[in-house]
Write a structure and sequence with these properties.
Layout lengths: L1 H8 L6 E4 L3 H11 L6 E4 L8 H20 L16
Parallel strand pairs: 1-2
Length: 87
């Protein structure tokens, strides 16, 4: 989250990707940093025990949501982050 906040403060579009287990932690961290982390994508949890093929599939599934998160105009009225599960 610190890296994304730093990039955004420099005008570099950025998004973070985390597993769904960390939705609340991400919100807490963003609040602590005073950063509105709109550009975020959450993927299915867990990831640590996935095979290489499963990780590639997870990344492929999340790709469109990540591109959307990085390229979409910031909309502070939108409460719902892009979801990799919808692609």
């Amino acid at each position: 989250m610190h890296d994304i906040a730093d990039l955004e403060s420099r005008g570099v579009p950025a998004a973070f990707v985390a597993s769904t287990e960390f939705v609340e932690a991400a919100a807490t961290q963003a609040h602590a940093l005073g950063f509105d982390a709109i550009a975020r994508v959450f993927v299915a949890h867990p990831i640590q025990d996935r095979t290489d093929d499963e990780m590639r599939a997870l990344a492929d599934n999340a790709f469109d949501a990540i591109v959307t998160a990085v390229t979409a105009p910031a909309d502070p009225t939108s409460a719902d982050p892009p979801s990799a599960s919808s692609h």
